[in-house]
Amino acid sequence: MSHPLYDDAGRADVRRNLARFTVAPLPAGSLKRASVCLIVTDDGAGGCALVLTRRARSLNTHAGQFALPGGRVNEGESTIEAALREAREEINLALDPDTVLGTLDDYPTRSGYLITPIVVWAPQDAEMSASPDEVSRIYHIPVSDLARSGTPVFYSIPESDRPVIQYPIVNSRVHAPTAALIYQFMEVAIGGRDTRVAHLEQPVWAWK
Hints:
The chain is an alpha+beta fold. The chain has a single domain (8-206), classed as Nucleoside Triphosphate Pyrophosphohydrolase (Alpha-Beta Complex), CATH 3.90.79.10. It contains four helices and eleven strands; from the N terminus they run H-E-E-E-E-H-E-E-E-E-H-E-E-E-H. The strands form two sheets. Strands 1, 2, 3, 4, 5, 6, 7 and 8 form an eight-stranded mixed sheet that branches. It is globular and about 45 Å long. The termini are far apart. The model has no long low-confidence stretch (mean pLDDT 94).
């Protein structure tokens, strides 16, 4: 897999791959609507990186877990508006709507949410800082790390007949739903492939 550079041509490649992809939306039903930002930024060496956060340990839910900037969609908001608002609130990054390159498939979580992933391209001069009430740390994960041999990892559990996905990155293991969304980003936005991820499972401890 070739990796786009963090430049105008790279942005055009990602936008083109997303435009070719037919998104598979899911009905929310009883699930609460949420959205996240898959923020493409500079890896420090001219390549692309993806922004990942670690949630503050003081949070009531999913404390200390790795996550993409995002959260629940408020009444009257679109999924794009919610994702951009959450990026501003969590990592102090103001993104204009024209930074949005496209969307990926909805992902239903075991904890009761339907997540819409929004892919955005951060400006060259973008500065980010963690909002301490929500985020303990911000990571820029090079796309090249996400494409390493042996990533992601798929395994089975007795509680489900669906494969569990995880990414061995940041000296830890990032699980679904975040891992599933990153995987589809890599497959679709970077690789130009039509890959679905709604069937990928979360570890049992994330089912609540």
